[in-house]
Amino acid sequence: MDLNPLREKIDDIDRQLVELLNRRLSLAAEIGKFKRHSGGPIYVAEREDAVFRKVTALNEGPIKNDALRAIYREIMSAAIALEKPLVIAYLGPEATNSHAAALKKFGASVDYQPLLTFADIFTAVEKGEADYGIIPIENSTEGSVRDALDQFVTSDLKIVAQLNLEISYALISPEPLEKITKVYSKDQALAQCRLWLQRHLPHAQLVNASSTAHAVEIARDEPGAAAVAPPIAATHYGVPMLMRNIQDKANNTTRFFVIGKTPSGPVGGGRDMTSFLISLGDEASRQPGALLRMLKPLTERGINMSKIESRPSKRLAWDYYFYLDVTGHYDDPAMRAAVEELRTFCPLVKWLGSYPVAA
């Protein structure tokens, strides 16, 4: 079979695609000029959500929607880079799950800044050293990342977007399985692979490392050591993977927040979520029915709650904050009315941000 006619058609389509992509990016650059002049944000989560929904609605196949979104992610990443060079702070070092989440959200055309702690990420965005930060907020296996949640108590940054990243771990080592005596990783990664490690390496010592990437560096250099880390880390550091997909649960997913200074506008159509930090106060929280009273202004207005978690305020003994995720946008009339009522008896009702529901 002569493939040349088919290849010539593909070449012709490629020429058209390149021309159209450059035309699209030129228009994005014009929008960037307007944004810089008006002081508007370069990254707009609600516009991003609208583009993804539009192109997937137009899709008639055979390309899958996930692949189409990945392509448009890079197109929009290139457009953002033309509008203004963005810096995205994440929990480093490179080749961690946070790095992978940042790349998934913002693509390869922006600049990334790995930082050591959640506090460093918040500080970098607050000072303008980074435009946005990306932080893990909860895992489907291990629950909330509480150190990240606690940063919102003192920060005025807003949650502007979210994403879900499917987490996959590999056993990484230059040693064969039978010679491994220590396994290094971040505590949460070890916990998410606990059963697999007990079955396959029952005599190995599990050692906490500062990051999954650092664990791979240790495994590379220490005899008898292995690391639990994302596959991207094995490639990045040039260390062999002994086993893939060693996480205990197949649907192991981590939810990430994007934080920034400028709040996101509403998407509408039931596709917005809002987060709050609420305190009932020390005395009120001890009274029977206090939590029910806090939730009543929301439930009476048909606002659905998808998450609630208590955290100690660290100011007084037995004083707690409540972290809530609810459906809807902060600017919705029902939400505004609920917040106004909550503020009549709650000493703290802090809006953390509204953002599109993760795809």
TrEMBL record:
Function: Catalyzes the Claisen rearrangement of chorismate to prephenate and the decarboxylation/dehydration of prephenate to phenylpyruvate.
Lineage per the UniProt record: Bacteria, Pseudomonadati, Verrucomicrobiota, Opitutia, Opitutales
Coiled coil: none
Entry annotated with the keyword Isomerase: yes
Boundaries of every Prephenate dehydratase domain copy: 87-261
Catalytic activity: chorismate = prephenate; prephenate + H(+) = 3-phenylpyruvate + CO2 + H2O
Gene Ontology cellular-component annotations: cytoplasm
Organism expressing this protein natively: Termitidicoccus mucosus
Protein name per UniProt: Bifunctional chorismate mutase/prephenate dehydratase
Pathway the protein contributes to: Metabolic intermediate biosynthesis; prephenate biosynthesis; prephenate from chorismate: step 1/1; Amino-acid biosynthesis; L-phenylalanine biosynthesis; phenylpyruvate from prephenate: step 1/1
Entry-linked InterPro entries: ACT-like_dom_sf (IPR045865), ACT_dom (IPR002912), Chor_mutase/pphenate_deHydtase (IPR008242), Chorismate_II_sf (IPR036263), CM_dom_sf (IPR036979), CM_II_prokaryot (IPR002701), G/b/e-P-prot_chorismate_mutase (IPR010957), Preph_deHydtase (IPR001086)
